[in-house]
Amino acid sequence: MREYINDEEKRKHEGGPPENPSDPPGEPEGGSSGQSSLDFEVPEKVSVIEQLRISIMRPMQLIGLAGLSVGRFVRYCLFMGLLIEFMLYVIPVAATIIHFGGFRNLFENKIPDFNVSNGVLKADEPFKINLGTYEIVVDTKESAVPKDSLGSAPLTFAIGSARLQAVVTENGLQQVLLDQRIADYFEDGFNRETLVSAIPGFYIALILTGVLMVTATLLKYLAASLIYMLLAWPIAQNTGLDLKRGNVFRLCFYAQTIGMLLVNVNKATGGYIPGAIVSAVGIFITLRMIFKTFAPYARYHTDE
Question: What is residue 33's predicted lDDT score, i.e. its pLDDT?
Fold first, then answer.
């Protein structure tokens, strides 16, 4: 069954009589804009791939996407979250593990000996393990790893002789999210053999990390949709479309699709373009998509 935004759209599609007999025959409502009121319609059972294509190439149909069921919107959100994390996390981590020949070969042959004694970590030499969007840096020359020794990975676990830190890096700015004692995480006697015996736990940790990253990504873009909705809602009210706030919120998420892809493809390829510039371009494209979606209907409530 075809879905309609309001009763007026249903009347037009099914050929019912016009509500205002004085309207000139053959002239679409909305004056001289010439825009068909059904151009935004999409199939009720549209796939996530088709939703992606529409979000990139057909801004007029974002209104139709916004009118789909909540279940289809949720599936699209999950699809985008998984697509982004596949680029940023799954491919780099899998490539790293394959490159090292698996965790066992990495722990036994690729990292130097280390040992925890009396709450202090000692390693023969500094080493790094890069796992896509995050990195493990071990440098026991000082109590905490100096920040100038860290790279530009979005998330770095920096392990010194006495302190373990989780550092987030974005647009060149570093922020310490966690700063704890080594003794709080590693018992005396912790060494390479302990790591080898804990390999199954590493795979579980990677899966859980991926789930958390998908969740964080979706929360970030859903929050951005709420902000965009504050701008788009007054525009939607000045059209002849019977859109609820939930519809506009979903429309704003779809409108971010190109921006999401630009920002995260840039990250996945090494961030050669400064993140602030790519983010600004993404915001501009999102706003343009929103305005372009509503523009053909802006004359509905204007006085002739």
Answer: 39
